C-alpha cells in the first residue's frame, strides 16, 4: 500500500550552495552552512533569516547545533573548527583541527563530544568541557572520510563513510574499527542509522548511484535502493515515519518505504544538486540543502492514530507499538479542568505487524482494526489478539459491526460480523475513498454514492467533493465535510425502504428523496463526531464548536492542534487528543444539547422540563440560543447576566423590566440608554428618573425646556452648578430670566470678558462693577491693556445711548420672572 503521505512545502529559501543542514530541537530554526563560507540560521515559521556568521572565505561543509550549550560548531575547508554562541553571536573557539578539508562534524547526543572527519583520512574526537582538546584520533580509512554519525541506540559507537568505498563502525575509546563493510562499487558519501524500531540497520549512499540498507549485526546488505541517476549525496531513516529518504546530485529526493523498500515518491524542486538532508526526532519536518537554496517539507499527517470506545478506553499507535489508556482511571476525587492534560496511566497493549495509518474501534468496542501498508488486521480490543486480516487500502465499519475494505479503486469487499466475505463489488467509477456507518459510501473526486450494506443497492448519488463523512448514532443524520464547508443531511430511511420494496427501478442518481439537506455551514472541519442530534467539530482555526439545528456555538478556543476522540455522557465531557498523545476533556452538557434539540424540533413543553437540570452558569448560553431562534421573551426569562437581560428587555420594549435591571446595576450607560428610549416612547416620568440617575444634565435640560417645567429647570440649574456643568446651569438661569445669577456664574467661573459683554446687553448698570473686576484681573497679565478698558461712568461718550440703556433696564426689571 502506498503510504499516501501528504508532503507540504513549508519553506523555500534561495541562497548560495548549501553543504549541510540541521534542525534546532526547540526553536523553529534551520542551520545551513554554505559553500561561500557563511553559516545562516533561518526561522521557518517567519520565513526570515535570524542570524548569519561569516565563517571564512572557503566552503563550510558541515555545521551543527549544540542546543544544550547554545552553540553552533562549524568545520570548513580552511581546516579549522569554529564554535559560535548563537545568542550573542560571539566566537567562542577557533582551532585548527585537520590537515585537509573538514567534511563533517557530529555532536554526541548526551556527552560533551564532537566528532570531525576530514580529507586527511582521519576522524577526531573533541571534548568541549576540556577546552576542545582532541581526546582521540580514529585512523583506518584510506580515502576522504565524508561523514560520521553516532548510533542513537548505542551512543558509544559511530559509523563513518569514506570514498575508500567502505563503512567502518567504531567504538569511543578504541583506536581500531569494530568492523568494516565493503559497501559500494564507488566511494561512500553518507551514512545513517535506523531509529524507528529495533532493527540493527544502517543506510549508505554512494557515487555508484545507489543507496544500500545494511544489517550491522549480520554485516549483510538487506536491500539496494536503485533509481537515482547520479551520486547519492545524503541518506536518512526518518525517525517518525516508516520511510527512507535519499538525496542525489541528480537533483531529486526519493522517498522509499522502510519495510517494503518500494519507491513512494520523488521530489524535484528544481534547485539543482542535493547535498544535505536534515531531520529531527519528534518532528515530521525535513530540510533539504541544494546548490541553489534550502527547502523544508512537512511529511504526513500530524493527527495521531488513535480511537476511543464508548466506555472511555483509548487505544493508540506510536509507530508499531500499541498502547492503551482509560479515562475512567482518573479518580472521581481528581478535579478535571477544561483543556488540562489528563493524568492517564499508559499501558503497553502489544505491537502491530504493519505500520498503522488508521486505527478504529468497531461500534460495540470489542474489536479494533489497524490499517496500513496495504493491509488490515482486526484485533480484540482487550487482549490484542489477531482475529482477522487481509489486504486493504482502506477499512470501514458499518453501524452494526459489518465491515468493508477497499482493495483498489475498482474493488470493494463486504464482510459479515463473523469476518466472512459476503460480496465483492466493482464500482463503475474510480473509488478513491470509502466511508462506513449507516450506509456504505464510495467516493470519486467529484461525487459520493451511498449503498445499503445488505445488498449493495445504490441509495443516492450526491455531487460533492467529500473530505470526510460523519453519521449520527441514530442513523438519521449525516454530516458531509468538503474542503470549504460542511452539509448536514437527514436520511429518510422510510422513503428509501418504500421505494426499494415497491420494486421500482433505481436510476444512476438513486432514490430522489433519500436525503434532505437541512443545513450548510461555511466552515472547514478538521475532526467531528455526533452526540445525539448535536454535531461537535473543530474547525480550521482550531475552535471547538458544536452545531444544533444549524446554529453553531463555540465551546472553546484550542491553543494548539487537537483531534476529537469521543464523548462520555456520564461525565458530560468531550475528549480530544493532541499529536503528543496528551488527552484533554472539555465540558459539554448533555442536558444543554437535549434542550436545544427539543427547541429546534418545536417541542417547547419537553424543553422546559429539561431546563431546570441545566446549571445556572449555562443559562446565558441557552438564552443566546433562544434569541438566535427569535424567541426573545423566552431568552429574557432564562438569561441571568444583567447586561444581557437589559439588552433583551430593551429589545422587547419592556422598559419597566429594563429599569429594574438598571436600578440593580447602577450603570450610567444603562440609565442613559433607557432614558433616551423612554423619552422617545413618551414615558416622560421614567425618562426624567433615568436621566437623573445617569446624571445626563443635557438630556434633562431638553426634557424640562420642552415641557416648560420651571421648577425642574430651577432644580437643574442648582444641580448643574454643583456638578460644575456651568454651561447647562447658565442656560437654565437664562431661561428663568435670572440675569444677575447668570452674571455671577460667569464671574465665578472666571469668564469676566463674557460677563462684561452680557452686562452691556442685559444689565448695563452692572458694567462699571464688572469693568473694575476685569481691570484688576487683566492687570496681572498686561497693565497697559487693563488701563485701556473704558468704564461708561467715566467715559459715557464712548458708549452710544448709554443713558437709554440704563432707562430700559430699570423699566423691564419688573417684567422679568
- Tell me the number of helical segments per DSSP (H or I, 4 or more residues long): 17
How far from one another are the termini?
102 Å
Which CATH first-tier class of the domain at 10-299 would you pick?
Mainly Beta
**Which of globular, elongated, flat, extended, rod-shaped describes the shape?**
flat
Question: Looking at CATH, which topology of the domain at 10-299 would you report?
Answer: Methylamine Dehydrogenase, Chain H
Please outline the major beta sheet: 4 strands, antiparallel
**What is the beta-strand fraction?**
35-45%
Main sheet strand line-up: 1-28-27-26
Low-confidence stretches: none
Rg from Cα: 41 Å
Which structural class best describes the helix and strand composition? alpha+beta
Q: What's the CATH superfamily of the domain at 10-299, by name?
A: YVTN repeat-like/Quinoprotein amine dehydrogenase
Overview of the structural elements:
The chain has 817 residues and is of the alpha+beta class. Among the domains are: 10-299, YVTN repeat-like/Quinoprotein amine dehydrogenase (Methylamine Dehydrogenase, Chain H, 7 Propeller); 752-817, no CATH class. The protein is flat. The model has no long low-confidence stretch (mean pLDDT 87).
Fold blueprint:
Layout: E1 7-14, E2 18-23, E3 29-34, E4 38-43, E5 48-54, E6 60-66, E7 71-76, E8 80-85, E9 91-96, E10 102-107, E11 113-118, E12 122-127, E13 133-139, E14 145-151, E15 154-162, E16 166-171, E17 179-182, E18 188-193, E19 201-206, E20 210-215, E21 220-226, E22 232-237, E23 243-248, E24 253-257, E25 263-267, E26 274-278, E27 285-290, E28 293-299, E29 305-308, E30 313-318, E31 321-326, E32 347-351, E33 358-361, E34 367-372, E35 375-380, E36 386-391, E37 394-397, E38 403-408, E39 411-415, E40 421-425, E41 433-435, E42 440-443, E43 448-451, E44 458-462, E45 468-471, E46 477-481, E47 486-491, H1 493-501, E48 515-521, E49 525-531, E50 534-539, E51 543-548, E52 551-557, E53 562-568, E54 573-578, E55 583-587, H2 590-601, H3 604-610, H4 619-628, H5 632-638, H6 642-652, H7 655-665, H8 668-680, H9 684-693, H10 697-707, H11 710-722, H12 726-735, H13 739-748, H14 752-762, H15 767-779, H16 783-787, H17 802-812
Antiparallel strand pairs: 1-28, 2-3, 3-4, 4-5, 6-7, 7-8, 8-9, 10-11, 11-12, 12-13, 14-15, 15-16, 16-17, 18-19, 19-20, 20-21, 22-23, 23-24, 24-25, 26-27, 27-28, 29-30, 30-31, 31-32, 33-34, 34-35, 35-36, 37-38, 38-39, 39-40, 41-42, 42-43, 43-44, 45-46, 46-47, 47-48, 49-50, 50-51, 51-52, 53-54, ...
